[in-house]
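Researcher: Good morning. I'm working through a list of sequences from a screen, and I'd like to move beyond sequence-only analysis. For each chain I'm collecting a predicted structure so we can compare shapes side by side. This is the next one on the list. No need for commentary yet; just the structure.
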Amino acid sequence: MKTDKQGIGRWQGAGMMATTLLGTGVFILPQLTVAQAEFSALYAWILLTLAIVPVTLIFGKLAARFAHAAGPAYFVEKAFGKIAGRVIGLMFMCVVPIGAPAAIVMTFMFVQQIVPVQGEALLLGQLSTLLFLWLINLRGIQVSAKLQFALTLIILALVILLFGKSNPTAASFKTSSFDTYAMLGAAGIAFWSFLGVEAMSHLSDDFRNPEKDMIPAMLIGTVLVGAVYVACTLLVIAYPNNESLSMVGLFNAFFGELFGHNGHYIIGVLGVAGGLATVNVYTASLARLICSFSEQGVLPSYLSKRNEFNVPLSALTTLMLVIALVLIVTFYSQQDLEDLINWVNGVFVVIYAAAMLAAWRLLSVKNRPMILLGLGFCVALAIGIGAHMIYAFILMAVITPFVMLQKRKRLSKVSNA
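Model: Good morning. Structure tokens for this chain:
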């Protein structure tokens, strides 16, 4: 893939990274983790933020050195061969059509703060969102990168204002006994907030200078996001309220008189924008992976078609149609949101662990302490996710024989030619 010289810079990349990670979860996940682990949720967020830094650093180094649209799949292929790389790539392909609908469902929790839409009108709105994202992506990821950087600054400013206005003290926290298992469970849910580290590696070719800008962009975005989630969790613990979204109650408590107790509109708009940003990055990155696999002959050749802006149009359109189908099934089956989140998280634990193992082979020895920390992080998360890891193992069990069979057929055709 050709590098666009007018592509993403360091700060735009940091904005994309931060907004992708903040995305749908910034105003929801702290509340879910506190419900799971009470005060132990705070430890989960702090430890998760510290643990994701070495993972981010390793992903950044891999992406800077081996810039490729296939991201983790390409790293694994370089380290362990085509079969392993394609298994990881296909796992990513199979999980995003579940993760993106989950993100859209979360996004429409904010929409419902603004407009009380219910029933099939809700589904129609979700499907219309996909059409909107498809149109945005037709001109490339650089357009949305600039918008997402501005959105990141707005969300950060809001959290800083809330935290500064609240001034929580030790006396305002209702503490409970430390629960390691509950903390790991909360971390398993919270991991959703850091899904996006690997997605940025798919977009390395869209950076003007990936070797110079990828690592700083990813680290800046990750650290900012960790700080925001820790701050939001502190606020949720210190100031409980009865709103369906705790952050709405917090905004009204501190700024209600100034804004006429319209926090649901402000938090709603930012939540919708952040959610759209998350889905946008994932669909853009996966479309590039699908196109890359098509060019390699793993997927049908028509998926490699690009438009005048070098956007993989056929792959993007096909992906959006699959996500639309999953949204319809999810809507009518009334699938639980937390199950979707944990299934997605389990697959990404496997992808992250595979990337860390690839880094062990591809990067210099001096990086191995960081790689070991990253692997330890993956093991701890797998324990926290628990039985939901079964979805990842099922995907591996189905995809691996498929890839091996495809390779044998290709070799057979070559030998018979």
